[in-house]
Amino acid sequence: MPDVTRERVRDELLRMEEDCIHSGKAHFNASARWAVWNYVFGIPSVILSTAAGAAFFKDYPVAAGSMALCVAVLTSLMTFLKPGEKSADHKSSGDQYLALRNNSRVFREVELDNTPDAETVLTALKGFTTRRDELNQASPAFSDRDFK
Q: Which domain holds residue 63?
């Protein structure tokens, strides 16, 4: 295989690895952000529902009603936003991007120079590119602030 082709493949693999690092990190950041929201909505919901249901509040119906209303709002937000599910989805995408990065790096560092024919190398590159495109399409969207 010509050295020019091998170097172009190496350069493309490096770009893919960099892209996977940034995309993976953004998904991990989004996962952490959604996990926080899961706790922000979930913990007060549990505490307030327990307190509202306690026998102590039979003497304080307004307080119990207010807490029950807060619980209803918090659980509605959890049901609608699904922060736990979004956190898990982003973590899964982040893991997949890092796996692709690792596979690309191993191919570039170990296999690329030991593969004599261009067809095999280009087929492998196409496989990595296809996998990255699939991840880009299937992964949940994240915010610009998740790149930090």
A: 3-147
